[in-house]
Amino acid sequence: MAKYRVRIDPRDNCISDMVCVSICPDVFEMNPDDNKTQIVAKYREGDNVAVGIVPEDLGSCVQDAANACPVQIIHVEKIE
Ligand code: SF4
To answer: Tell me, which fold does domain 3-78 have in CATH?
Structure first.
């Protein structure tokens, strides 16, 4: 089954409009400390809140979020 690596980079450029969170709440959430988006703990890769691995059934959702992000900082790469 395919998996996708999702990166929020550069995360500092997030303008906190929550577009990705509305489109794909299973993967993206707002960090209450800095008010920027992050990958939910379930799909995070290691300690980096800006990198995650998601299963195939969430691929279209993260891609839609990447396409809709107004500052284009969400990157999706198929890894398997
Ligand atoms: S859509 Fe982009 S700018 Fe908006 S919250 Fe998500 S990462 Fe940040």
So the answer is: Alpha-Beta Plaits (3.30.70)
